[in-house]
TrEMBL record:
The lineage of its organism: Bacteria, Pseudomonadati, Pseudomonadota, Gammaproteobacteria, Lysobacterales. Keywords: Acyltransferase, Membrane, Transferase, Transmembrane, Transmembrane helix. The chain crosses the membrane at residues 12-33, 53-71, 92-112, 155-175, 196-215, 227-245, 257-275, 287-308, 329-349, 355-373. Residues 5-370 form the Acyltransferase domain. One of its GO terms (molecular function) is acyltransferase activity. This is Acyltransferase family protein. Pfam families: Acyl_transf_3. It comes from Luteimonas kalidii.
Length: 400
């Protein structure tokens, strides 16, 4: 169970990309919690460069990590002749930050959304809003569009990851042979010639063609079937190929072709949305672009994982630091972005100056928050950090 440092780097960079993406959401015309006075379509093509795949990549890497964590738990249980301790510790690391985030970290996002977008504004102050937030007040509406409170906003990834982990644990606990056979069969298909590209492209293209017009992307768990079809599949795939070296080597071999297909499909999708922004596209072309979206999301993942495996970046103090910091930074980042964005409005800075300042200030404050929180024992589990273990002081040597 040798640690995959290339995947540690991928995970760290993917979470960092979320910070950049959510800063970008402030400046585009898409629906978000708050909007910049300078919002325009200028950034949208670059946002679509990562839209199809950034979360899917994280779910796949999380599936790999789950395979290693479960293997480690089983090895520990075998050595100590005890039961496997996996689901309890994993739930603690995910559900405690999720609950704390929904109660404390996320409410400012909803508050400024109400202040910005509620007809007539909101003037009762944050503490009054927080009380209504905790009471699940459903009266914050714009027509038929009502804000659901409390909410997990950007922390939906943590909720989904826990649900997928529980489902996978159930399969590993009650149907281990079926899970092993399915993983072996899948690995065999992905290592045959161009199988590492072909079969997943077919799956994700068909999923989007069949489901995206039926199920919206809600991140609400119970009705988010298109996202479950793609994200749970990627999570299971990561678990299945965690130790399948042949699949990883196939990604290395196909990395250049995957990169070319990724960028080509991105250009096609950008051109499609630009041309048909105001007019209805032909139905056949719409279906073709949905298939291109599915190809884009898998080819990007293969290119990123293939190049990371090829370059094989190793361990370093920087990686160990970032690997610990990135989850607390993820928990904090969207609230920090919104607080900074609203706070910087009176400065009336041009977007080309304000945007980079917003990125730099967000990273600085989030890492400063991590440095503070990791030193407070009671705060560590609230942000997904393991409890610090006290190292016993060695007894002094006896006098000669």
């Amino acid at each position: 169970m040798q640690r995959r440092h290339d995947l540690d780097w991928v995970r760290t960079c993917a979470f960092a990309l979320l910070v950049l993406y959510h800063v970008g959401m402030y400046y585009v015309t898409w629906e978000w919690h708050v909007d910049s006075p300078h919002a325009s379509t200028a950034l949208e093509p670059f946002m679509m460069l990562s839209s199809p795949w950034r979360l899917g990549l994280l779910f796949l890497v999380s599936g790999v990590a789950t395979a290693f964590l479960l293997g480690k738990a089983r090895a520990t249980a075998a050595r100590e002749d005890g039961r496997v301790r996996f689901l309890g510790p994993r739930s603690w690391r995910l559900l405690v930050p999720l609950a704390f985030g929904m109660l404390v970290i996320v409410p400012p996002q909803s508050y400024f959304e109400v202040v910005d977008k509620l007809p007539g504004g909101y003037h009762d102050g944050y503490l009054a809003f927080w009380g209504r937030y905790l009471a699940a007040d459903d009266s914050f509406c714009r027509g038929d569009d009502c804000l659901v409170l409390p909410t997990w906003n950007h922390l939906w990834f943590v909720a989904y990851l826990w649900v997928y982990t529980v489902a996978l644990w159930g399969l590993a606990r009650f149907a281990p042979r079926m899970l092993e056979r399915a993983g072996g069969w899948l690995a065999g298909r992905l290592t045959s010639r161009a199988g590492v590209l072909l079969w997943p492209i077919v799956y994700f293209a068909l999923a989007r063609v069949a489901l995206i017009g039926v199920f919206d992307s809600t991140h609400a768990l119970v009705d988010d079937w298109y996202n479950h079809v793609q994200y749970f599949a990627l999570f299971l795939l990561g678990f299945a190929i965690a130790r399948a070296d042949g699949v990883w080597e196939a990604m290395v071999r196909q990395r250049r072709l995957a990169l070319a297909l990724w960028l080509t499909s991105w250009l096609a999708v950008v051109a499609y949305f630009h041309h048909f922004s105001q007019i209805e596209p032909p139905h056949a072309l719409r279906l073709a672009m949905r298939a291109a979206w599915g190809m884009n999301q898998w080819c990007a993942i293969v290119a990123i994982l293939g190049f990371a495996r090829h370059w094989s970046p190793g361990d370093s103090p920087v990686l160990r630091y970032l690997s610990q910091a990135i989850f607390p930074v993820y928990i904090l980042h969207q609230t920090v972005i919104i607080l900074l964005a609203v706070g910087m409005r009176p400065l009336a800075l041009p977007p080309l100056l304000e945007g980079p300042l917003l990125v730099a200030a967000t990273f600085a404050l989030c890492f400063a928050g991590y440095e503070l929180l990791r030193r407070i024992p009671l705060a560590r589990p609230l942000f997904g950090l393991a409890s610090q273990r006290r190292v016993p002081t060695p007894a002094p040597a006896p006098a000669a």
